[in-house]
Fold this sequence. Notes:
Blueprint: H1 6-14, H2 18-23, E1 29-31, E2 34-37, E3 49-52, E4 57-60, E5 66-67, H3 69-77, H4 81-92, H5 103-130, H6 136-144, H7 149-154, E6 158-160, H8 165-170, H9 176-181, E7 185-187, E8 194-196, E9 201-207, E10 213-220, E11 228-230, E12 243-244, H10 246-256, E13 258-261, H11 265-273, E14 279-282, H12 289-298, E15 301-304, H13 308-311, H14 314-325, E16 329-332, H15 341-348, H16 350-358, E17 361-362, H17 363-371, H18 380-394, H19 400-414, H20 422-438, H21 475-492, H22 497-504, H23 512-526, H24 535-542, H25 546-557, H26 565-597, H27 604-621
Parallel strand pairs: 13-14, 13-15, 15-16
Antiparallel strand pairs: 1-2, 2-3, 3-4, 4-5, 6-9, 7-8, 9-10, 10-11, 12-14, 16-17
Amino acid sequence: xxxxxxxxxxxxxxxxxxxxxxxxxxxxxxxxxxxxxxxxxxxxxxxxxxxxxxxxxxxxxxxxxxxxxxxxxxxxxxxxxxxxxxxxxxxxxxxxxxxxxxxxxxxxxxxxxxxxxxxxxxxxxxxxxxxxxxxxxxxxxxxxxxxxxxxxxxxxxxxxxxxxxxxxxxxxxxxxxxxxxxxxxxxxxxxxxxxxxxxxxxxxxxxxxxxxxxxxxxxxxxxxxxxxxxxxxxxxxxxxxxxxxxxxxxxxxxxxxxxxxxxxxxxxxxxxxxxxxxxxxxxxxxxxxxxxxxxxxxxxxxxxxxxxxxxxxxxxxxxxxxxxxxxxxxxxxxxxxxxxxxxxxxxxxxxxxxxxxxxxxxxxxxxxxxxxxxxxxxxxxxxxxxxxxxxxxxxxxxxxxxxxxxxxxxxxxxxxxxxxxxxxxxxxxxxxxxxxxxxxxxxxxxxxxxxxxxxxxxxxxxxxxxxxxxxxxxxxxxxxxxxxxxxxxxxxxxxxxxxxxxxxxxxxxxxxxxxxxxxxxxxxxxxxxxxxxxxxxxxxxxxxxxxxxxxxxxxxxxxxxxxxxxxxxxxxxxxxxxxxxxxxxxxxxxxxxxxxxxxxxxxxxxxxxxxxxxxxxxxxxx
Length: 622
């Protein structure tokens, strides 16, 4: 029997609006009666993820991910249903009923709960230590770096004394196995117990998108050891999926449709203190696919504010190209004198940093500048190398008009003001690019990311080519489409159920997936069972096959648009009956042929049915 009754489950669902829950993870834009955004479950450039508030469900037309608010949290956070229900109940402030759990569920739930709780208490402990006598060195360092006490408290910065002080503070609350799993302690080399992972370091709590502490970064101030040290990989913390500062930056990123990407912890915190609250940092400068996808889900324009040396490194450029390939408008902010954002803001102030943001150059322009020779150094050999390198850069630009504009600019710069040389240089670049394109580069998508649009301005997609002709639809395909449309109409108009039952019987659908949805929906559509206007979420609870659930949300997200559902339903029923009659006629013909070949008499019932169907078919054709 279900662990929680339906009334409790519906109360949790009703108090957790699906748009609000998903908006904590994805930047959604309202389009008519639904919200649309980039799918959080697969990489895409064009939004195909739809959230329908009226039905409280979501559906991705790209990867087919679908479900309700519970399913979303289960898929996004890798939770069991019980864990998702608990999280959403807490979010809505609904007390949990005392229900029994299986031993395995109890163990998994308590372990995950304790891991988050241990990290939260560790963050509090470190923060408290910073403002104690033990953390005097760390606090002095942060204040010297220009941080205010308010900023220090907002980011919950701390101080790790080390030498087992954290372990001794937490061992009464948590088993050593929990503390070790989340990267807070490790066994002593002599086997005499445990010691802290971090000691004598300024501590930076790392949180997930929901603000839960999942790990730490620590900066050493003196002595031996790596300058920065992060939590090792744990069940809750994966460096490649995390961006420092994202929880504090997400709202501004969505509002401005812009993210500022920096290198380190202080490069995030100082700009936030100065009013630039859309700043985040990867834990390491080599961006991963997962981090790029998270950034793109929050904002379309990304200003990269790495220092000059880092921005020019090949690993960094590959990461920025990944951002570009996810559909981001990537621009590079070039900070003078090799400074980082933290130092620049402290030296020149917020206004000067804002001016640098406005002057950030498109990624392609930045890459071209790096490979072109300086003025006065354009020897024939240097020009040849530059042409090959520029062609490689421009092969990544998918918009042909934009690509040609860059070719013209490069040829102008390399010509040295000689108008006679420019056509030959353009031809040479085109030849190099054509070689690359023949090797497999594809440029069939519109791309306007490297123009001079301001942040938040929409990207205009190119017109799609229409097919010159459409293949004729077979009777079977027409019937399948009619089934799909009729099922959509039924879900929107329960009053049509009586007509469908009367004209098509108890099994109106030949497609088994359609029939499964119909069988689950029929008691609700009859009114035999209440569903409080949330038909789709009720059906998602009743259906077990993920493929059928995805089909249901796809149909609900793309309903049949009609001003006369009765007439539309009648047309669908007629197509379904014609296909049924066609299949029955074929079956009867096979039986008659079989009787004739064996020289047996045809059963009169079969013959009469066959004759009636032939007449009916002829009448429908006339």
